[in-house]
Amino acid sequence: MACLAALLLLLGGCGALDLGVMNHAGPVAAEQWRLYKIVGVVLIFVAGPVLLLVPLIAYHYRLDNKDDAYRPNWGFSWSLEALIWLPPIAIVAGLGVLLWDATHQLDPYRALPSKQPPLEVQVVALDWKWLFIYPDDGIATVNQLAVPVGRPVHLSLTSGTVMQSLLIPQLAGQIYAMAGMRTQLNFAADRPGVYRGLNTQFNGAGFQHQKFSVVAMPDREYRQWLTRRAADGQPFDDNVLKSLMRKSVAQRPLFFSKVPPGLFEHLMMANMQKEEAIR
Predict the structure, then answer these.
(1) Which one is predicted more confidently, 13 or 124?
(2) What is the pLDDT of residues 8-18, one digit of tens each?
(3) Is the peptide bond before 100 cis (omega within 30 degrees of 0)?
(4) CA distance 73 to 37
């Protein structure tokens, strides 16, 4: 009964795999998952012999084994040395070549190949919420990032407070957002859906609630979404900015229209000046 209960408990967490890179929905996450599988197979070759040979050797050299040859003067074996050194060297060299190429291919600053221009979105990490600015459309959202399916997305990130880390497991890797600095992340969604994004850098009491949704939709629906946001969004003014800068958790996504040009650069430069003043 205890084993059955433990098994059911473990299986109960399998639903979380649907929110991760195993259920990838974009080219970046798909390439990450391919690398994970390769490294997992290599790990089997590394750990497998150890797990297999340790009990076999312990059994073979047990105290009551009197039948095998006893050679106290044995000291060296070329075949044994080759077995010890050549496989690890081959594994390290192979992984080095693989990861060198993958590191460049999965560089978060590297634009994805596409015939379409990337969607530009500016991201400001706040306590404890995410502000997404669409500079070409004059709108902004809090805790909801809408993107068209099949079109590359280019994020420019900064922080309005402390350092934070954005992660969208099914679509892209992790990238830091830092006050007074601009980082970048490129990704794309291959299919419609709602995907989870979150902050993975602890930043205070509301850290566990700092999540957002990435809504990937066909291009036509995305354009309709932009029209609705521009029509029914609350105008973005100084009072809105002051409210967002306060430490709070947004209970639902917020939508804003008439976002002043250069808002992202203004917030980034303001924090840069604060950092310089502190120094």
Answers:
(1) 124
(2) 555 555 566 77
(3) no
(4) 44
